Amino acid sequence: MATKVVMEALSPTMEEGRLVKWNKNEGDQVKAGDVLAEVETDKAVMELVARGDGVLRKRLANEGDASPVGTLLAVIANADENIDSIVGSAGAGAAAPAQAAQQAQSGQTAAPNKSVADTRESAGRSPVPQNPAQSQGEASTPPQQKTAAARAPTAPPPPAARPAPPRPPAAPTASRGNGASKADGAGRQRSSPLARRLANERGIQLGGVQGTGPGGRIVRRDVENARAGASAPGVGAGRSAAAERLAREGDYKDVPLTQIRKTIARRLSESNGPIPTFFLTAEFDATRAGEMRNQLKDMGENYKASFNDIVIKAVALALTEHPEVNAHWLNDAIRQFNRVHVAMAVAVEDGLITPVLFDADRMTLWDISARAHDLAKRARERKLLPEEYTGSTFSVSNLGMFGIDQFTAIINPPEAGILAIGGVEEKPVVVDGQLEVRSRMRVTMSCDHRVIDGATGARFLQTVRRYIENPLSLLI
Amino acid sequence: MAVLTYRDALTQALREELQRDDRVFLMGEEVAQYNGAYKVSKGLLDEFGPMRIVDTPITELGFAGVGVGAAMVGLRPIVEFMTWNFALLAIDEVVNVAAKTLYMSGGQFKMPMVFRGPNGAALQLAAQHSQAWESWLAHIPGLKVLTPGTPADAKGLLKSAIRDDNPVVFLEGEMLYNTKGEVPDEEYLIPIGAAELKREGDHCSVITHGKMVLVAMRVADDLAKEGINIDVVDLRTVRPIDVEAISRSVQKTNRAVVLEEGWEICGMGSQVVDFIQRECFDDLDAPVLRVHQEDVPMPYAKNLERAAKPDAGKTVAAIKKVMYLD
């Protein structure tokens, strides 16, 4: 029985992978679980493991090749087995990657992928296939990731609440995927009657929805998860740890849209693209925060905290007071979270990633400092796990260290806002009629006007200002 | 409420109806002197005498026919079969006479009678004595078919069956007679044709009847520990079927497993699935699955018998499959 080795969806957002290195040569004996190759996904370098036993008969991809998920990469078979027909079908397989991706990304296969694939540092790292969205702005996140985050909260509780049962890495996973896509022929998309009804009711095009049921069937959870994600294709697995973190009832409140809110959403979207964004800029006095930072530094290594940590803590605390800002736009509702998960944009060699500080409001400044440091370090090493960079409720982006004094960041949907932090500068400021030199910091908040109105955002910034300018409140 | 066995609940129903209406009488093999093969008629001979509690010879076709004749002339017989496996010998009276007489006489003859006895498998009674007949009987227009799974339902439904003017098939279970449950102290009837939602959950509907209700309840308990909450729809009556109760549940949960004791082909589950696909097509998120006896005569060997019967494990697997969790 031959086993097809296909490009697997090794992260929830992966659409394409680049084969970094083959670990096995043609003719090598392999068994299920062996690492065949290293694959660079959109976020990390992962291991591609064998799903069956036999001889690695044929390698169809070269090192350095980028292939869509589902593409046939190699064939494992008995030494004397005829594999011509499988090898011959390689072209056809690549022609329908979306379908194969559906198979590979279905909940059934995503789980084992995750369990067998370890993130590891790249031996020979090279640029990630550039994602269009990444070039849009410093603080934006690739659209697939946004969607994964958007989908997480609406995942149905029972499947999300349960860990996916472990499965033996078996040949059928890969071969079934290809078999099914072949049987589909013209590529008819399968969907349950309920999924079709819900999609119709909600005006969702099923063509843009990834099915996670058997054979790629689109089922209820896929349609529900697609709500906030709109039409971005290629995203599946709603079972990540991030999903679990956000799916719990009681962690959020869905606010139905009032007529005026609907009108605002529609009119402003017409005017300003899918996310009608406006910007609020404020200049905070960071003198006392700077003094506190210096005092902490003098206390020793363990107490050190950066301006970035201080801002994250301030933002997290402010978000607890402003749930209307700590929110997701779900198209038919606004989801206000009562837990605070702050994403921070981290520049990596060839792009950026937004690891998440979960429950940041409940972390001490030093917890935030240590955790942020660890996340940033591992982000640069490309060692983050998918659940570490999805599930945020609000984002912060800081370019102060690059000498930027002010900038605007692009919202990470379905979040409603992002705060762009500029550098701390000494400036002449009039204080009580006297000219003084003070440390100042400019922040700009990008707000999704469908969720946040001008005054709402301004009040939130007032609260952030209160924390930053009275930094002892961050230590209580 | 008192906790009674299924057996005692049936005895109460018989006693109350025998007291209430002197046209009611019970007959069958060993129902009188021996107090019933399964002691359901215990004490009734002493209380009501040999004219109302009648021992018959081992002649199922004969005494079923006597019952039909008695019903035609205005009595309200209860015919006990020692098991429904033996009732095959009397099936002509049940299907061709009892079920047809009202219709073929143009309404001149009512058939106010009950055929009752244990149905389905017990333990190691082998192929001929382990069969569940409800789908055969439910196939017949003119019959009503009741399959209570709990003592309370057994009592309330038997009383309704005795008071019904049509021939009613009443299916009990050897494995049910000793099961216990709360039974209301005051008099009550359970309407024929009304299902009961025995457990409420949002994730999946399990539609079942008779002995399998107990399996479904155990499955519900087990799955609740995993955070999966199921609706258990106990049909209680398999003819007529409470389609509305099935639809209500499936429209809520969007997925269903139909659990029954009998075989797959033309089983009760086939009919339930048919109602579901008609009434709930746009509500279904997964194909409906069935759990039933394997498609073989019941094996005698203990291990094989266990493997052939529908059980909690098979039901859990089916539920997880329709929930896309496997």
What topology does this entry show?
The complex is a heterodimer of chains A (476) and B (326).
Chain A (H helix, E strand, L loop, with lengths): L2 E4 L9 E7 L6 E2 L4 E6 L4 E5 L4 E6 L6 E3 L3 E6 L6 H5 L1 H6 L1 H9 L1 H10 L2 E2 L22 H9 L5 H5 L9 H14 L8 H10 L17 H10 L11 H7 L4 E5 L2 H14 L4 E9 L1 H13 L7 H15 L5 E3 L3 E5 L4 E3 L1 E3 L2 E3 L2 E2 L7 H16 L13 E5 L18 E15 L2 E15 L5 H16 L7
Parallel strand pairs in A: 14-18, 18-19
Antiparallel strand pairs in A: 1-8, 2-4, 2-7, 3-6, 4-5, 5-9, 6-8, 10-13, 11-20, 12-13, 14-17, 15-16, 19-20
Chain B lengths: L1 E4 H15 L3 E5 L15 H5 L4 E3 L4 H13 L3 E5 L10 H8 L2 H4 L9 E5 L15 H5 L5 E3 L4 H13 L4 E5 L7 E4 L12 E4 L4 E5 L3 H14 L4 E5 L2 E3 L3 H11 L2 E8 L4 H12 L9 E5 L8 H7 L3 H11 L4
Parallel strand pairs in B: 2-3, 2-4, 4-5, 5-7, 6-7, 10-11, 10-13, 13-14
Antiparallel strand pairs in B: 1-8, 6-12, 9-11
Helix pairs in contact in B: 1-7, 3-4, 8-12, 9-10
Compressed to H and E, one letter per element, the order of chain B equals EHEHEHEHHEHEHEEEEHEEHEHEHH
- Please give the most extensive interface between any two protein chains, plus how many residues each contributes: A-B, 19 and 15 residues
Low-pLDDT residue intervals, each spanning 5 or more residues of chain B? none
Mean pLDDT of chain B: 97
Approximate shape of chain B: globular
How many distinct helices of chain A?
15
**Sheet with most strands of chain B:** 7 strands, mixed
What Rg of chain B do the Cα atoms give?
19 Å
Helix-strand category of chain B = alpha/beta
| Total beta strand runs of chain A | 20
The CA-CA distance between the termini of chain A, in Å, is: 64 Å
Low-confidence stretches of chain A: 92-186, 229-247
